[in-house]
């Protein structure tokens, strides 16, 4: 993967600064000032002339590429709309417009002149963070299983001229954070995009081991089925029973703080393919069930960003990896299994397998004496019906934890929406033949799934993110890498509190 480098610099003379492309934010109805004015003069009034034509009016989302002269080979004008209403949404649009305009161009470097951007310092830092994430994300191309890998983005280096804006160090820190988050997002996308015949539980275990290699802060261990049987993980093992691919429980321990600091545990649903098992899914779009390890992918991506950022915090990433397939050895509807917690489960539908692997991972998570446990799962089709693709569903047994996650999602623009976990819903999980049933009847499918998980998370602060709608797009098909940005933001917030 070709990565873009981000640099901050205090450039005194914008007109003579050498770059393949000078990027200038312009606001509707405002005179050229600062670097824009200097570059315009250096290019014999090329910007003034272009504006006079009336084609480019600095409307939000507009862009115009001009040939440059002097230091800049090209001049890219980015419309920012009206200065008074330039908020975070407008700043995001600004970043997206830059990436969109540079994407198919030959420029290998570019220089963004920040002066004149109508933002407070705090919001400029936020925008630079987002810019680095967005550019890094835009540079991602899937190529692993194509005979001709797609052409990489030409842009190698983005320099930000901070003169007249904020300190170069603050800008560099913001962009470094954003870049690490973007890299984590791309890692998550790559893993989730891989087909099910490549990305098996064994592949995920190898990937985890390779992440741990040569990294003193990250310790990786993998529990095999034999060990899981000894631990009594009858629920997790019931999912892989029909598959030739053995299940793996992967643990990645990141130590960034004192051993006495309790770790945050992230638990990812890692179903590398969900056929539904004996409760077989219909054929349409079944291919998309290779994305059913999107939760696991987001945990991998978050661990990657954590390692890069060297956050002073302890985090454990747990992946419950299995393939859900039908066979004569597969679990059947009506089968009763015993989970690691001792609770028995009547499996009324083998397609409700995510909660079956997660419940044993949640029981296992208690061993780490966690500060909080967050599981991330493409858990229910009902979640897609409820929230569509824009929000992940959030469930939590602790108000503070819920608020912190919602806030992190807002800050990182990777949003979640709180759903209820009321006792009334628990009744839907009653079984005549076991302590609990694995499905809860027709209504509130994402809630009853969360209720099921809550029974295995009674001894610590716990939250569950159902990312069935947010983890991938169907047209064009591809993983989004969500909610890596939310999770990293949450962990950064916690790390800054621990100090
Ligand atoms: N992985 C699916 C959930 C899913 C379905 C995510 C479609 C995204 C799109 C999960 O394992 C599943 O099959 N859930 C069932 C539960 C049902 C049997 C209670 C579902 O949602 O249909
Ligand atoms: Mn399923
Ligand atoms: Zn599933």
UniProtKB/TrEMBL annotation:
<dbReference type="Pfam" id="PF02789">
    <property type="entry name" value="Peptidase_M17_N"/>
</dbReference>
<dbReference type="InterPro" id="IPR023042">
    <property type="entry name" value="Peptidase_M17_leu_NH2_pept"/>
</dbReference>
<keyword id="KW-0031">Aminopeptidase</keyword>
<dbReference type="InterPro" id="IPR000819">
    <property type="entry name" value="Peptidase_M17_C"/>
</dbReference>
<feature type="domain" description="Cytosol aminopeptidase">
    <location>
        <begin position="349"/>
        <end position="356"/>
    </location>
</feature>
<feature type="binding site">
    <location>
        <position position="269"/>
    </location>
    <ligand>
        <name>Mn(2+) 2</name>
    </ligand>
</feature>
<keyword id="KW-0464">Manganese</keyword>
<dbReference type="InterPro" id="IPR008283">
    <property type="entry name" value="Peptidase_M17_N"/>
</dbReference>
<dbReference type="InterPro" id="IPR043472">
    <property type="entry name" value="Macro_dom-like"/>
</dbReference>
<feature type="active site">
    <location>
        <position position="355"/>
    </location>
</feature>
<feature type="binding site">
    <location>
        <position position="353"/>
    </location>
    <ligand>
        <name>Mn(2+) 1</name>
    </ligand>
</feature>
<dbReference type="Pfam" id="PF00883">
    <property type="entry name" value="Peptidase_M17"/>
</dbReference>
<protein>
    <recommendedName>
        <fullName>Probable cytosol aminopeptidase</fullName>
        <ecNumber>3.4.11.1</ecNumber>
        <ecNumber>3.4.11.10</ecNumber>
    </recommendedName>
</protein>
<keyword id="KW-0479">Metal-binding</keyword>
<feature type="binding site">
    <location>
        <position position="353"/>
    </location>
    <ligand>
        <name>Mn(2+) 2</name>
    </ligand>
</feature>
<feature type="binding site">
    <location>
        <position position="274"/>
    </location>
    <ligand>
        <name>Mn(2+) 2</name>
    </ligand>
</feature>
<feature type="binding site">
    <location>
        <position position="274"/>
    </location>
    <ligand>
        <name>Mn(2+) 1</name>
    </ligand>
</feature>
<feature type="binding site">
    <location>
        <position position="292"/>
    </location>
    <ligand>
        <name>Mn(2+) 2</name>
    </ligand>
</feature>
<keyword id="KW-0378">Hydrolase</keyword>
<dbReference type="InterPro" id="IPR011356">
    <property type="entry name" value="Leucine_aapep/pepB"/>
</dbReference>
<feature type="binding site">
    <location>
        <position position="351"/>
    </location>
    <ligand>
        <name>Mn(2+) 1</name>
    </ligand>
</feature>
<dbReference type="GO" id="GO:0004177">
    <property type="term" value="F:aminopeptidase activity"/>
</dbReference>
<comment type="similarity">
    <text>Belongs to the peptidase M17 family.</text>
</comment>
<keyword id="KW-0963">Cytoplasm</keyword>
<keyword id="KW-0645">Protease</keyword>
<comment type="function">
    <text>Presumably involved in the processing and regular turnover of intracellular proteins. Catalyzes the removal of unsubstituted N-terminal amino acids from various peptides.</text>
</comment>
<feature type="active site">
    <location>
        <position position="281"/>
    </location>
</feature>
